[in-house]
Amino acid sequence: MYVRRERFFLPQEVLILSVMISVTFFYRSPRKTGLSIEGIFSLVSDCLKDKVIVKSFYCDSAQSNVANTIEAGKHTSDVNHITGDVHYLAIGFKKGKNILTIHDLGHYSNLRKKSFIRFQFFKWFWYKLPLLNLDIVTVVSNFTKEKVMSELGVPESKIRVVHDPIKPVFKFTQPMPRRDKFHILQVGTGPHKNLKGLLDAVKGCQQYHIDIVAYPNESDLQLLNAAGVSYTVYNGLTDHELYMRYVECDILFFASFHEGFGMPIIEAQAVGRPVITSGIGAMKEVAGETAALVNPQKPEEIRAAIDWLYTDATYYNQLVELGRENNLPYTHEVIAAQYLQIYKELTAQ
Question: How far apart are CA 186 and CA 181, in angstroms?
């Protein structure tokens, strides 16, 4: 007599028998500096390696954009995630399950003011044509979301806001003991980073010292030398070396004119250093009330914020604690879980 026996799977067996989706992360060509995009998504992929099959594709700087686009099309998976900068790769993808992360539209906006022909080329091959093959666009802030909607006409239903994660290397340390000089850290010296605003604010103040992590050009160096304050320039830093710059500073100055997100804000806060940033755009969104917010166009406001943190230990410590609390939504585990949800959303369609 034949007896039918039912087969019941334990939860662990169900997990083993299920087919994991594969996700390919598409990166720009490897480079010695400017590793923010690669660093962000290496954290995400490391968190997800037990939940999805992770693959990576790096553009070859020795090849043309066309060649890289063709080659990228050969490495597609269940989900294809362009991590930023090389948006044009999507032109070579088949439709379905494609994601692009847009970090900011600063270059897009600046180019429009400089060259009509270059702007049109950039608009079509970095945005308009790639967007035809994309199912979801992720952005790093609500500020960038609004820009993507207004500048590129991307519908809100297609956009997801996923913040950048903070790297684990940026751990809390107690503030430095008070020294002869109060160290102000600035990360970046691009035109929008507002180095001039900082220098106008502290001009001739011998109690302040500026530490700059950047590659200042000749014009920047002239401004620094004319300001009458001591300064030190650092560049080509590893993550650990950048961490040490945060450790050894007293405050971070990050009152830019515009940013897509503002990673140094949460890096400094994670290390336990107060932040002075702009009360506008993504910077206000990221910092909220946990930083000293200033008008980047007004050096007198910048000077007042610096002096307040220099002289008022209670206010200084208050911003330290508020900054640590502000970091909780930006851990790489939280951000990776948000991306995983998007991948599941796509593959479930």
Answer: 15
Describe the chain by its helix, strand, coil percentages, rounded to 5.
50, 15, 35
DSSP per residue, 327-340 = TGGGBHHHHHHHHH
Cα separation, 128 vs 10, whole angstroms: 48
Task: Answer yes or no: are the C-beta atoms of 200 and 228 closer than 8 Å.
Answer: no
* Nearest residue to 259 (alpha-carbon basis) of 275, 283, 284, 279: 283
Identify the three-state secondary structure at position 346: helix
Residue 149's CB: how many other CB atoms inside 10 A?
16
Tokens of 197: 């605003």
Q: How much is the pTM?
A: 0.85
Q: Give the pLDDT of the chain (349 residues) as one tens digit per residue.
A: 444 444 444 455 444 435 789 999 999 998 755 457 888 899 999 999 999 999 999 999 999 999 999 999 999 999 999 999 999 999 999 887 999 999 988 888 888 888 888 999 999 999 999 999 999 999 999 999 999 999 999 999 999 999 999 999 999 999 988 889 999 999 999 889 999 999 999 999 999 999 999 999 999 999 999 999 999 999 989 899 999 999 999 999 999 999 989 999 999 999 999 999 999 999 999 999 999 999 999 999 999 999 999 999 999 999 999 999 999 899 999 999 999 999 999 998 7
Q: 237, 207, 162, 161: which is closest to 310 by C-alpha?
A: 207
What burial class does residue 43 get, using C-beta atoms within 10 Å of its C-beta: 0-12 exposed, 13-18 middle, 19+ buried? buried
What's the token pair of residue 345? 């959303």
Q: Which pair of structure tokens corresponds to residue 191?
A: 């035109």
Residues found in the chain: 349
Give CA angle at 200 (195, 204), nearest 5°: 115
Name all domains of the chain by residue range, CATH numbers in brackets.
20-165+331-348 (3.40.50.2000), 182-329 (3.40.50.2000)
- Coil, strand or helix at 30: coil
* E strand or H helix at 289: none
